[in-house]
Specification:
Part of the neuronal tubulin polyglutamylase complex which contains TPGS1, TPGS2, TTLL1, LRRC49 and NICN1. Interacts with PCM1, CSTPP1 and LRRC49. It catalyses: (L-glutamyl)(n)-gamma-L-glutamyl-L-glutamyl-[protein] + L-glutamate + ATP = (L-glutamyl)(n+1)-gamma-L-glutamyl-L-glutamyl-[protein] + ADP + phosphate + H(+). One of its GO terms (molecular function) is tubulin binding. Helices cover 34% and strands 22% of the residues. It has helices spanning 3-6, 20-23, 34-42, 61-68, 89-92, 94-110, 148-157, 182-191, 263-266, 270-273, 289-299, 302-324, 365-382, 411-431; strands at residues 9-10, 16-17, 26-29, 46-47, 56-58, 81-82, 118-122, 128-132, 141-144, 163-167, 177-179, 205-209, 216-217, 220-233, 236-241, 245-248, 286-288, 335-343, 349-355, 405-410. α6 packs across α12 (302-324) and α11 crosses α12 (302-324).
Length: 432
Amino acid sequence: MNPEGKKMAANLYGRVNVPAERCRVSFCTDMEKSVLMSNFERRGWHQVGPDDEWNFYWASTQTCRNLFSVESGYRMNDNQMINHFPNHYELSRKDLLVKNIKRYRKELEREGSPLAEKAEVILHGGQVVTRYVHLDFIPVTFVLPADYNMFVEEYRKSPQSTWIMKPCGKSQGTGIFLINKLSKLKKWSREAKAPFHPQLSKESYVISRYIDNPLLIGGKKFDLRLYVLVTSFRPLKAYLFQLGFCRFCTVKYDTSVTELDNMYVHLTNVSVQKHGGDYNSIHGGKMSVQNLRLFLEGTRGRSVTEKLFASIQWLIVHSLKAVSSVMANDRHCFECYGYDIIIDNQLKPWLVEVNASPSLTSTTVNDRIMKYKLIDNILSVVLPSEGIPDVRWNKVPCSEALGNFDLLIDEELIEKEEAANSTSRTTKNNKK
């Protein structure tokens, strides 16, 4: 190969790309978002239809499910990749996420793992409850209608508490409401098309204890949107994108009963907030995670801020471990999840939900730049250095390929390091 062929061109983010004439990658997508198309085109890839021969498919979750269905009979070859795991919903459906985390905790308990340690804690309302010490990162949650009686039992322990109802299969704040009285839930059940009867109800809901003591900035509630890239579930290989952001409510936080139905106070979803009169289209009600960290270091101190961010990473890793055994670990797949996390005023992070198709729509200029980088970095991590999909690759990107991603966990790497340390200890002992 001539020197020109070997030469790599760095793009404006310092990334190194394979020259287009060597790539010959054909891509397919049913989501023609500009941040996707510009990344594919910059790599010299060419677009084909779903019935043509493709190497890389960026698909919606529904398209992916259809492709992997038994009826389709489609089998991918070694040079094809797709952006979802077949049963991604084990993590992204609200009821299945809760079920899997509960099962994971029970399994660790049965094994006698120190991770499953429990202790009594006093809630900010004064109620004493038993909680997992290390795995208490989802609010108390029940699936309705199946867990209705268990929910009522829990509700009666603290009748003044507020709970949040969410339909399991919907997103972007659709169908969410808050309740603080059992009568309100019963009234909703009577008025709903499908009442709470396990045999009749078509749509399930999750009902979670509402985090009513959120950390506020400028008197407003916010949550974190973090991007987590998974390239394998067994062994687990996951990366955290450094450029996440906070999403703010447009109206100051208020716990009064009169504001219980005001979603501009309680829901941080941009799809909800952008319809509010106080929505700012310049910054989009968003703040970078880096600025959040600086704010917390300045107001709460560096050590507690570092502890918070370590807890967030711990939460993400164990939510992934909770589903790793049930995920269909197809080597053709990778997935970028949108993690939604709320921080309470004690700087404790809570996992709210996980999205399998985080929005790639840009609401601001900064949003577009960040999402362009996200896609660029994803492609560099999931593809071998040659830039062509190959399932025989060991999925270990070089450090330059990570871009703005940090390695969260690589179980294969951990296993190799443990084996090397074990061998080293054995060698030293033998020498003695």
